[in-house]
Specification:
The protein is mainly alpha-helical. The chain is built from 15 helices and two strands. The protein folds into two domains: 68 residues, no CATH class; 407 residues, no CATH class. Strands 1-2 form a two-stranded antiparallel ribbon. A hairpin with a 2-residue loop joins strand 1 and strand 2. Helix 1 packs antiparallel against helix 2, helix 5 crosses helix 6 and helix 8 runs parallel beside helix 10. The termini are far apart. About 4% of the residues have low confidence.
Amino acid sequence: MDKLAIFLVIVACALAFRRWRDGFALCVVVALAQDPLRKLVPGEPVYFTVLVGVVFGAAWLSALQCRVRLGPNVIAGWWRQVALPFSLFVAIVVLQALHSYARFGSPVVTGIGLMAYLAPVFALVLSYQFAVRFGVRGMRRLYGLYAVLAAVWLATVYAEYLGFDWAVLGEVGEGLRIYDMGTLLKAYSGLFRSSEIAAWHGATLACLAFMLVAGRGLSLPRLLLAVAIVAFVVGLGVLTGRRKMLVQIAVFLLSYYALLAWFGRGQAKVSMAIFAGAVGIYLLVGGGFVLDSGDDETQRPLTTDTRYELYAKRGSTVAGDIPERFQELGLAPVQWAINRFGVLGAGLGTGSQGTQHFTRTVSSGAAEGGLGKITMELGVPGLAAVLWLLAAFARYVWRLLEALSRASPAHARLAYGLVAYLIANAATFSVATQAYGDLFVLLMLGWATGFLLALPKIAAMYLELAARRYVALAKLGDAAPA
């Protein structure tokens, strides 16, 4: 099976190198296929998780061969808005890579760290060029392909929950067990390799499905369909046992609502409908399936229905736990990392997912939260550089949204969705970094950022084309006989 997987990756690389734009769709297929294939190989080798990176690398080289400009400065406004903090960030990453290698002598650990910080950058610049060339239609086709395949993969979470005992279902390794709700809950992952990854894809599917449906035109029927899709994904996603998925979806919907209410002129009713939908989804999971408080659930027979109630009840507790988790996993790890490794940190890769397979020299207790991970790997100077970069990027995006909302409301709506998606992932990353060690997750975030930054240019080309058509029609009308 491992030989078959390698053969398929070689074929995918050949196709991506032949035409770089196809590399995006091929990455989606390979990324989703690599987990079930890994489960069929004895020993479940970890190298399967980077197969998607090989395909993306082939697409990148193909673009270079086609003389596509792949530097971030090609993006309008980049040099003026974020070039300085971005350059400082890259310099610190390189220095911490040298620090990590000098300290532990492991090129694999250093390489994993470089991948975690730089893969989204490579994805950003290539996706920007993809979006500029193929427009909103190309973006929608790519996300549509992902949505269809991810929906099939997510449905297998329910198949595993129902008891289907297939070799491709379940987590890699021993699997995760959750001691909660008065009993032992299994974390289901379906075709995905872990419940963390399954939960992230569930949240991403909900966000992208909402963008694809509601972004085409804001109307009540489209909103109801979008909310129904999100509710369906949430209903399956709670079986992963990872409550952060619910937070990610809720933050996305509320961020979309806030951006639409602020920038979207004349969309007050629609934005309120989105807000109501977000609240309704939470109540559906948090209230509609909660066990009767008068029952002793530890004494009830765990049928399929009552087991699902336990998962839904666990999901309903997430809102109350957010302040405590933010303190324990968001802020406290920063101080822990400074006390443990000093102001300069431990070096690149020491807190990244995957390094545990190659070294156990460093305790990565601070790395579960995003701020702690950054402090541990990049030190306090790196944390300051990241915060500066985020602030500069936020100002850059704010101006982008202001310009788009005035020039092209249709493109602005898609931008609201992409920004909300990035905000939701930033919120999740701040308290849980596990899924963000996955290469495909990093690529997807880079793609979303590149698509967002390309929207002003896409809108400008669209408006220019529309103006040319208007002039042509006007001339045709003037030339027509009276």
